[in-house]
Specification:
The chain is of the alpha/beta class. It has ten helices and eight strands.
């Protein structure tokens, strides 16, 4: 069997078409244990997510994690599931539709690193529509191997199966792009106009295990670099990592520094992502790996005072 996909038959006089591929983390097809199990299997089998040898990790994953996590995760997915389907897919599709209205003559499609619609299938559909150039954009402002890296892996794997390869460009990160920073500013300003402005603004980012971070992963630098977060009163919130490592102690230390720093009567915390080991997506929804979407932010709130508030951006 050939390693290459069947190429679509395209007329020679067709004009080259350009497409933008917006890649998000992924979602099960339904809020059931049967649908969640293969999604979790693919997600947690990615060595960019769990950097353990498969011979060691797979027996743990399949024997001790999937049989129990799939059912509990499905119950949490049911709490956020929309009538139209998966919230992450619905919001990603709306993003793609809105961008398509701005980019006249350019096809814009959402795709998922894990689950459906998959990256490879979406790229094949675009080729069948005459697309010869693709801009792949992982929807994560800060680059991390376990998120943007995993998304781009799917793109490169799809390219390996194309005999007639499309022209490809990728976006690695956009944490410091003026338009992204302006979008954050507008969200925060809108909240302040409606609810009043506090004395301090704290931005909470998701944890990344130090063992991985020290391997040239630029998440801390990307997250705290001005003007996206200035002054950099930031802490790594998530403690739900495959190996505890030092993420928990780093998060505790961050909160302690924040508690000592913030002394005004009114504070806001801006959580920008929830899933462990990956930075937030620009179409973030509550990832149902925990009972509470903001556990570590809530730990800070009693120390912040009665006038503190949280809001996503």
């Amino acid at each position: 069997m050939t390693r290459f996909q069947t190429e679509p038959a395209l007329p020679h006089d067709r004009q080259p078409q350009t497409a933008v591929l917006l890649i998000n983390l992924g979602t099960p097809s339904a809020p059931t244990a049967e649908a969640v199990r293969p999604f979790l299997r693919d997600f947690l089998s990615d060595q960019r997510v769990v950097e353990l040898k498969p011979a060691l990790w797979q027996p743990i994953l399949r024997g001790a994690i999937l049989p129990f996590r799939a059912k509990s995760s499905a119950a949490n997915y049911k709490k956020i599931w929309l009538k139209e389907g998966s919230p992450l897919y619905i919001y990603s599709r709306r993003q793609a539709d809105a961008l398509a209205q701005r980019l006249l003559g350019v096809l814009v499609r959402p795709a998922m690193t894990y689950g459906l619609p998959g990256v490879a299938d979406t790229m094949a559909e675009l080729k069948a529509q005459g697309v010869t150039r693709i801009l792949a954009v992982p929807l994560y402002p800060q680059y991390a191997s376990s998120s943007s890296g995993a998304a781009l892996d799917q793109v490169f794997r799809a390219m390996l199966r194309q005999r007639n390869q499309v022209g490809l460009r990728t976006v690695r990160s956009f944490y410091n792009h003026p338009a992204y920073i302006e979008a954050l500013r507008q969200q925060v300003s809108a909240y302040w106009q409606q609810h009043g402005r506090g004395g301090h603004l704290m931005m909470s980012f998701t944890a990344s295990r130090r063992r991985i971070t020290m391997r040239a992963t630029p998440i801390p630098t990307n997250a705290t670099k001005p003007p996206a977060c200035s002054p950099p009163h930031s802490a790594w919130a998530s403690k739900n990592t495959p190996s505890p490592s030092k993420a928990a102690s780093d998060a505790d230390a961050g909160w302690n520094r924040a508690r000592k720093t913030f002394s005004s009567a009114c504070r806001e915390a801006v959580p920008t992502g929830w899933t462990s080991s990956v930075p937030p997506s620009s179409a973030t929804v509550w990832k149902p790996w925990r009972k509470s979407p903001l556990p570590d932010v809530k730990l800070f709130m009693p120390q912040a005072g009665a006038n503190s508030a949280t809001f996503p951006v």
